[in-house]
């Protein structure tokens, strides 16, 4: 290959992608990751999940064939490591970036903490196996699960367990080479949640009543300012003839009554001065 041809190839290789090409590439990658995860985990994975979650879950699933991809020693047995990787990938796919919580959403879209039975149901895995996998994840430092207890008011002695608080260590994304992407996506998710929260408050009755009060006060102030402006204009226009008449008197000196009436446009009397 000539030097000219090699230079042209290098220029084409470093040509930046357009926005449309980036969008198509992201959509194709999401579809590929979702189909691969669906085949490996046994349940349908949506390609509309954030890119960083799909890519991290795929890297964890691929680590079953090459443990060096994860970079953390979790266990020795190969079959147990496969179960751990599947549970971890499922937790990543159900990870809420804004809330830093492994959870699910109900029919109303409200975020709720999930039980361990979610992993057993999706992965078709015995509950005891799921518990062992979660224990190994907690010991590795990649996963945190805080158990919750509730006390009944009717029976204070009765203590019932509730869904534990499940979190992922953000260092996991650094191990997979996705730390920067995870930070960006997490900040965007928090901004969307904050924007949604502020937007929902705009329809609050208390805020709406204060807005109506402010509108009425603003309209009242505008009316008062307009009335004051018209009053100043009328006063200014009424002062100008008097000032003009005084200037004429000063210039003419002593005037007779007839001359004063003429200046003021008053009718003249029948009797002479």
What does this structure look like?
The chain has about 270 residues and is mainly alpha-helical. It has 2 domains: about 5-200, no CATH class; about 205-265. About 60% of the residues lie in helices and about 10% in strands. The chain contains 10 helices and 5 strands; from the N terminus they run H-H-H-H-E-E-E-H-H-E-E-H-H-H-H. It has helices at about 5-15, 20-40, 50-60, 80-95, 115-125, 125-140, 170-175, 180-200, 205-250, 255-265; strands spanning about 95, 100-105, 110-115, 145-150, 160-170. It is elongated, with a radius of gyration of 40 Å. The model has no long low-confidence stretch (mean pLDDT about 80).
What is this structure, in a nutshell?
The protein has 273 residues and is mainly alpha-helical. 61% of the residues lie in helices and 11% in strands.
Order of helices and strands: HHHHEEEHHEEHHHH
Counting structural domains, the number is 2
Low-pLDDT runs of 5+ residues are none
Structural class: mainly alpha
**Overall residue-averaged pLDDT value:** 78
Note the gap between the termini. 122 Å
| Strand count | 5
Per-chain topology:
Elements: H1 3-13, H2 19-41, H3 51-62, H4 78-93, E1 95-96, E2 101-105, E3 111-113, H5 117-123, H6 127-140, E4 143-151, E5 159-168, H7 171-175, H8 179-201, H9 205-252, H10 257-263
Antiparallel strand pairs: 1-2, 2-3, 4-5
Helix pairs in contact: 2-3, 3-4, 4-6
């Amino acid at each position: 290959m000539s030097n000219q041809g090699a230079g042209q190839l290098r220029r084409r290789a470093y040509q930046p992608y357009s926005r449309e090409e980036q969008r198509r590439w992201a959509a194709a990658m999401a579809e590929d990751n979702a189909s691969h995860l669906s085949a490996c985990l046994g349940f349908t994975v949506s390609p509309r999940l954030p890119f960083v979650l799909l890519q991290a879950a795929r890297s964890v699933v691929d680590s079953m064939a090459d443990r060096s991809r994860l970079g953390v020693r979790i266990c020795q047995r190969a079959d147990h490591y496969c179960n751990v990787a599947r549970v971890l990938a499922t937790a990543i796919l159900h990870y809420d970036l804004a809330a830093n919580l492994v959870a699910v959403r109900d029919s109303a879209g409200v975020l709720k903490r999930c039980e361990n039975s979610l992993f057993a149901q999706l992965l078709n895995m015995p509950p005891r196996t799921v518990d062992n996998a979660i224990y190994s994840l907690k010991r590795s430092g990649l996963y945190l699960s805080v158990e919750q207890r509730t006390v009944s008011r009717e029976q204070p002695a009765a203590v019932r367990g509730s869904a534990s608080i499940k979190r992922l260590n953000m260092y996991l994304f650094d191990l997979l080479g996705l730390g920067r992407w995870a930070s960006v996506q997490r900040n965007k998710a928090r901004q969307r949640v904050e924007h949604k929260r502020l937007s929902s408050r705009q329809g609050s009755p208390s805020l709406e009543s204060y807005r109506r009060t402010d509108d009425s006060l603003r309209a009242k102030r505008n009316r008062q300012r307009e009335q004051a402006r018209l009053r100043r204009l009328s006063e200014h226009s009424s002062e100008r003839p008097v000032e003009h008449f005084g200037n004429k008197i000063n210039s003419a000196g002593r005037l007779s009554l007839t001359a004063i009436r003429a200046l003021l446009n008053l009718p003249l009397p029948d009797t002479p001065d």
